[in-house]
Each structure stands twice: as structure tokens, then as C-alpha cells.
Write a structure and sequence with these properties.
single chain, mainly alpha, about 80 residues, globular
Length: about 80
């Protein structure tokens, strides 16, 4: 099994944390599972659209993937009880 690059992961987690802070200050918490799912799907669709784009950049793909991660974290945070 491949070992993950911890330094690279830290950079990714920092980007997710920054985008999560921005999104939480801009948007209300999810109110239902359906809303959370819809937002995740929208972000996933945007990532797919970017992948299919002939002129996509690594930076654009990275940002869309970060937004997918952020919406999934918001789903867990806003809608599911802690263990």
C-alpha cells in the first residue's frame, strides 16, 4: 500500500480549512440531507465539467476538488451528530 505524503496532505488540509472558513461565513448551514446532497452533487458536477473541459488547468481542477471536499465536510458537520 502506498504511503501518503504528509507534507502534501498538510497543504491540502490547509486549503480545505481556508475554503471551509470562507464557505461557512458566506453560506448558512445545510438544513437537510437533501440540501447537503444537492450541494455536494453540484460541486461534483462542476468538477466533472472542469475535467471534461479541453482547456482545464491543474489549479482549476484542484479548486473544484477542494470544494467537493469542503461540501462533504459541511454535510458531516451540519447534519450528523458527533460520535
Amino acid at each position: 500500500m502506498q504511503e501518503l505524503d504528509k507534507e502534501k496532505l498538510q497543504i491540502i488540509f490547509n486549503e480545505i480549512e481556508k475554503e471551509l472558513a470562507r464557505a461557512t461565513s458566506k453560506f448558512d448551514p445545510y438544513h437537510s440531507y437533501h440540501e447537503g446532497f444537492a450541494v455536494i452533487k453540484e460541486e461534483l458536477d462542476e468538477l466533472w465539467d472542469e475535467i471534461k473541459s479541453k482547456d482545464h488547468t491543474d489549479e482549476a481542477l484542484r479548486m473544484e476538488a477542494i470544494q467537493v471536499a469542503v461540501t462533504a465536510i459541511r454535510f458531516v458537520h451540519d447534519l450528523l451528530p458527533p460520535k
